[in-house]
Design a protein that fits this description.
With 270 residues, the chain is of the alpha+beta class. The strands form two sheets. The chain has an eight-stranded antiparallel beta sheet with strand order 5-7-6-1-2-3-4-8. A two-stranded antiparallel sheet has the order 9-10. The two termini are 29 Å apart. Bound molecules: zinc ion.
């Protein structure tokens, strides 16, 4: 499942490839699941617009679109779900199974949305899309503390609460708690200001490192001939149950917090 850094990488890759291009026409398949807006509305909103930019909001890819002689901004919002991909393809490229949408561009290329498991979502909006929650890469340390300090939930569960921070997933929650030395089960109310400052720093750092790591492999995600699969940062705790902690050599523990598999070091995290 793509997490925030992957979505950021994909959005940047798409922005580089298709910004400035125009969507001329749109084909939409007959599977209803990926369509959060009605098919006819999606087609009408996308057709004959210029792609101003592509950016990430939380775990969404947002295409900012501009129609001629229309003042109001409009957006095409794509959520990749578990297996969704947005591909930039020459028209002669083989059509992948489970292609749900094709936007034909003035440049002759196509933007294709492919999603075998159909947990991805396509939506259009008029106006501006900010998404729920606060953006983890933009939030300042003071606001970050205010979001969590009054929460009785374990800090791990609070980090995953998308109404607070938008886009932090399981891997990056575990990794940032490890780097900050905080146990995932601790209540958010019990965490000190100094610890919150560490956590804020660790979260932004781990997300930025993953984005940097993904930059070189962006072609794998957005070009039709790219290989499938998501890059992974070298995880320090996530998925390393029973393996020695990279700092203290104690085995990494796995527990369940807020229904999610959670990894931590019992010695390094307090
Ligand atoms: Zn350790």
């Amino acid at each position: 499942m793509p997490e925030l850094p992957e979505v950021e990488t994909i959005a940047r890759g798409l922005d580089k490839r298709v910004s400035g291009d125009r969507i001329e026409s749109v084909w939409i398949g007959n599977k209803p699941e990926p369509l959060k807006s009605p098919a006819a509305v999606i087609a009408k909103t996308l057709e004959r617009t210029r792609i101003e930019q592509v950016r990430r909001v939380g775990k969404h890819i947002v295409f900012d679109l501009k129609a001629a002689k229309v003042k109001e901004a409009r957006q095409w919002i794509v959520h990749l779900g578990m297996t969704g991909r947005m591909l930039v393809a020459p028209p002669e490229a083989d059509l992948a199974d489970h292609t749900h949408l094709i936007a034909r561009l003035a440049s002759g290329r196509e933007l294709r949305f492919v999603d075998p498991r159909r947990f991805g979502r396509l939506e259009v909006r008029v106006g501006s899309f900010a998404g729920p929650g606060t953006e983890p890469l933009q939030v300042q340390v003071e606001e970050f503390m205010q979001l969590f300090r009054t929460r009785k939930a374990p800090i791990k569960a609070a980090l995953l609460n998308q109404k607070l921070l938008h886009g932090v997933g399981n891997i990056y929650a575990d990794e940032s708690l490890f780097r900050a030395g905080i146990r995932p089960r601790r209540r958010a109310t019990s965490i000190t200001r100094a610890e919150y400052a560490k956590l804020h720093h660790a979260l932004q750092k781990v997300l930025k490192e993953a984005i940097t790591a993904g930059g070189s492999s962006v072609s794998d995600y957005v070009d039709a001939n790219g290989e499938e699969g998501f890059f992974q940062l070298q995880h320090r705790v996530y998925g390393r149950e029973g393996e020695p902690c990279l700092v203290c050599k104690r085995p990494i523990k796995k527990i369940v917090v807020g229904g999610r598999g959670t990894h931590y070091c019992p010695k390094c995290q307090r």
